[in-house]
Amino acid sequence: MPVNIEIKGNLARLLATENLIVEHKQVETAQFDVDRRVLTLPMWNTVSNFVYDMLVAHEVGHALFTPNTMWKKDEYANVPQSYVNVVEDARIERLMKQKFAGLNRDFYKGYEELNALDFFELQDVDINQLKLIDKINLYFKLGAYLCLDFNDTENQFITEISKAETFEEVLSLSKRIYEYSKQQAEERKQEMQKQEINLSSLEDTSDSNSEEIEMPTNTDDASDQEIDADADIDDPDFEESEDDDYGAGNTAGNWDNIDESDTQESFDRNSDSLKDNEARETNYVEIPEMNLDNVVVDFETIYQALKVHFEAEDTGEQSSRNGYYYCGNSLSQERLEFNKYKRSASKDVNNLVKEFEMQKAADSYARQSIAKTGVLDTSKLHTYMYNDDIFKKITVVPDGKNHGLVFLLDWSGSMAHILKDTVKQLFNLVWFCRKVNIPYEVYSFTNDGWCIGEVNQDRSFDAEYNLVNPERIVTQIKEGNLHIDGGFRMVNILSSTKKSKKLDEMMLLLWLQVNAFSNTKYNYYRRFSLSGTPLNEAIIAAGQLTKRLIKSAKLQKCHVITLTDGEGYYSQYNILRDNYSGGTEMSKRSIYPHNTVIRHKGRTFTGAMSEPEFTCKLVEAVKSDIPNCNFVGIRILERNGLSNFYNYYGRHYYDHVDQMRSQMKKKGVVSFKSLAFDMWFALNSKDLSVEDELDVQAGAEKRKITAAFRKMNKGKKSNKFMTKEFISQIA
Q1: Is the N or the C terminus of the chain less surrounded, counting Cβ atoms within 10 Å?
Q2: Which residues contact 518 (CB under 8 A, 6 or more apart)?
Q3: Are 400 and 556 in contact (CB under 8 A)?
Q4: What are the tens digits of pLDDT across the range 43-63?
């Protein structure tokens, strides 16, 4: 059965009764950082669940019972680390088995499996001739499978280790075992020297007698045996053939290095052979807390900036100063167009309101219940002989929830030609919210850093710069955190907290700004220009902004609506790297092509192998921290964009991309639920613009009129379907 590594991570947290940081990486063996409380588990591909559970339990034992202290005191300065490790391993494994009785089987089966794989390299080894620290290591890990001999002193050590409760006892025992082992090694060395002296004298005697021996020409069986016996003395394998307690080679262990445990070294070395070398490297990233004061450009700031700019454009001052051609009627014409659209949109907005009220009423009816009051209904008393239901009833209608909306508008360069039509749709939704009194906030997300006058400059790693300009720091730089570009901003372009008159003025200013991106007759406000697509950063910021809106407006449910035409750019995370001066410096690393695991508020979100997957995992992580929060994605597709959208988000819902194409053709829009987004809407950019009037010239041919009529109806059909589905999400 394959091992589910994330389940093992959860097991570690449960055993530790602590929200440990659990990582699965390409390491040789399991490790636990006592200081950082990080448990690192290897990515093995040939071991069973027993081995994994044993390793997890072992390392959790360190987390629970090994103190976070420096133990290299004067009295233990000469005690090797390997001795302390072996004795401490025995202590914490015993304590874990006492605390969780079910782990006994995992330790038994796990070590049985590793022993069968010869992890300790015991094949052809006389285990009773190993160093004491190795015999202790084997006794507490493999005692059930091995017959180990100990003298009285050694048995006393075993007994004390079996009863050790504290780390201080471990240190004391390790010191005594080491001193005893050094004494053993010295005695063994002296005995070996005696053996060598005796062997040397035997060889000298043999040489002195060799001249007196006459080699026979004819031999019988007896003489053959005598010669062979003498020949054994000169055999280079003589020492290995002798069955003595201090034989050379692998049978007696490496007694020359008394400071190390050979069996534990073998275990660590063989662990490398079980690594899954084909497994993708795993990145672990944390979602950072953003400094919203520096990230958010407030409504008043952008309102005043746009107002000043277009007032200057009205006079021609701005245009003449920048050398642009000025057309005095352009702004006036756009104002007329805006007012015209506002009037025409009122019908669609009223339809939205009507649909919303109908959905609310239907939902309220579905949730209502009838309860008996316990009061007799006198009009039914005469039926008491054949009717048990003679009590008055009351209809209970549960209270609806207070909803709020947070809109995220893509302010990227690729949106330039469709931004005006997108803003139209946004305005419709905002007007709808105003009519039904739903609190809302609208943010455009950008990485232009316009408010500080820096375009596409990431200064987040410049410590000196940040000290001088602390107002520009969007988040604290920390190793393992998702990297946030220093120019990332959330511009609060609309808000339900503002008065209607100012909101209308702001909508007009936005209308002029987005129209100017494709209109050379007047200038757009340069510091609010289009940029990249920091979608992932916007999702993170939206989590914090949603919490703020829920708290301020006392909401029970909130919806985050993203309006974008594509994916966010490749995300990065912060890492420490060695520099050329011999020190370390903070740098960035792409989350691709590695498998990325997001950690947020004690939970992990796995399976991010691509930018869309990473975005979905970010949404899951952000939602996990906000009760009753929905994410709705509105994707504006360009030509041939449907296939990619299917591959990124629709595979779990549609059997094939052709099904998605069929729905797009039939309804003008694709809609489905996803694993991360509560609802996805995708529509063709050509159908985004909806006109109430036919866009044809006077005297146009019949076929052109027909085509224009179909285009108008197609756009209306898709928008009608989308708005109906959208309203159902928030009703």
Answers
A1: N
A2: 416, 417, 420
A3: no
A4: 777 678 888 888 888 988 888
